[in-house]
Design goal:
The chain has 381 residues and is an alpha/beta fold. 28% of the residues lie in helices and 19% in strands. The chain has 11 helices and 16 strands.
């Protein structure tokens, strides 16, 4: 490949998504609008829209939907040169209603079994094709797609000299884990990463606790741990000297993961053999601003992109958390899985507000295109 290396490489599944033309049950919706969706490609697109060099690596079919996916992701400025086309498997698709994902009214139907993305493995996605960025971003969704996909995550998170900073969003999707095992696998993968993002609700489902300090006790290995939404706050635990712009800390830790056998069941718990944190963490908690929610899908991916963008810029923990919240607010106030991030200057201004002004922040649809004054209460229509 020519040109400068990417700052971030995102590896994972992307699908064509069909959004309903009106509210109601899937059985009653008469028409759908085509879009794209996928945690890792969402993060890649948001980072590219924020001005970063990003590569997305995945597999799609040699079909029209695969063309649409790669063309759409590339249009955001993402490098898709490493995406592979599978002539024997289709591109995954899914349909969903417009009800909030957390409610019983929400319906989503996936057609991803046997997809091209499910054929990812250490053989089809070699480590040296994704390791040239400062950050390698992965999610727990990939681990649930197939044994090969799970083996791929174990391979990419294996300790290696010069390994990029591994960012891992737990992203627990219960419907994907039909055979169980999510709690053990996702905990093990998180322990092998440098930077971990997990929702308090996910931690409760997986490991029986939503308390950020207890989650940290379960995950002492990552240099940076972000627990989102615990008691209305998002909390960052960070070891001194870790994370911000200095990838590869975990790759220096000893462990047996470098053997990376083929499936997760063959090597449970290896990461727990590595030493945990030594010096006391720096702990930072930041509340999310009030948001008039238009659509909840994609907010977690947007938070990850905002946080990673601020990490690449070497910002302080509080600013990184606030940039994550602002990117999530952009997604929450926009339809679909992807939303244009706020302009960097605008986001920097909001992230620099004092605690009182930040607490009064109230964001609604259209706020990302609005200006603001630093010395006033901020409410965007």
């Amino acid at each position: 490949m020519t040109g400068p290396p990417p700052e971030v490489v995102c590896v994972g599944e992307s699908m064509v998504t069909f959004l309903p033309s009106r509210p109601g049950r899937l059985a009653d919706v008469p028409a759908f609008t085509r879009a794209i969706g996928g945690a890792e490609s969402n993060v890649a697109c948001a980072l590219a829209a924020a001005g970063h060099r990003v590569r997305w690596v995945g597999r799609v079919g040699t079909d029209g939907f695969g063309d649409h996916l790669t063309d759409t992701i590339a249009a955001y400025g993402v490098d898709v040169g490493s995406v592979r086309r599978d002539p024997h498997r289709p591109t995954g698709v899914y349909f969903r209603t417009d009800a909030d994902r957390s409610t019983a009214a929400h319906e989503v139907v996936y057609y991803r079994a046997g997809s091209a993305a499910s054929a990812m493995s250490p053989r089809t996605v070699p480590y040296d094709t994704v390791a040239d960025g400062r950050i390698l971003h992965l999610t727990g969704i990939t681990a649930a797609l197939s044994d090969g996909c799970r083996a791929l995550l174990y391979d990419l998170t294996a300790p290696r000299p010069g390994r990029p900073l591994i960012s891992f969003d737990v992203n627990h999707r219960p419907a994907l884990w039909h055979a169980g095992g999510a709690a053990e696998v996702l905990l093990d993968l998180a322990r092998r990463a440098d930077l971990v993002l997990v929702g308090a609700d996910e931690a409760e489902r997986l490991w029986g606790t939503a308390d950020p300090a207890e989650v940290r006790a379960l995950l002492p290995e990552p240099a940076t741990l972000i627990v989102k939404g615990g008691e209305g706050l998002t909390t960052a635990f960070e070891r001194p000297g870790a994370a911000s712009g200095h990838p590869g800390t975990a790759s220096e830790r000893p462990g047996t993961a470098s053997e990376h056998p083929g499936t997760a069941s063959e090597h449970p718990g290896t990461a727990s053999e590595r030493p945990g944190r030594g010096a006391a963490d720096a702990v930072t908690s930041v509340p999310a601003p009030r948001v008039d929610v238009l659509a909840s899908v994609g907010a977690g991916d947007a938070f990850a992109a905002g946080f990673l963008s601020a990490t690449l810029r070497g910002l302080a923990p509080r600013a990184r958390l606030r940039h994550g919240h602002l990117a999530a607010a952009a997604a929450l106030t926009s339809p679909g899985d992807l939303a244009a991030p706020p302009r960097r200057a605008h986001a920097d201004l909001l992230a620099a507000l004092d605690d009182d002004a930040w607490g009064r922040l109230h964001l609604g649809p259209g706020w990302t295109s609005a200006g603001t004054e630093a010395d006033e209460e901020v409410r965007t229509p």
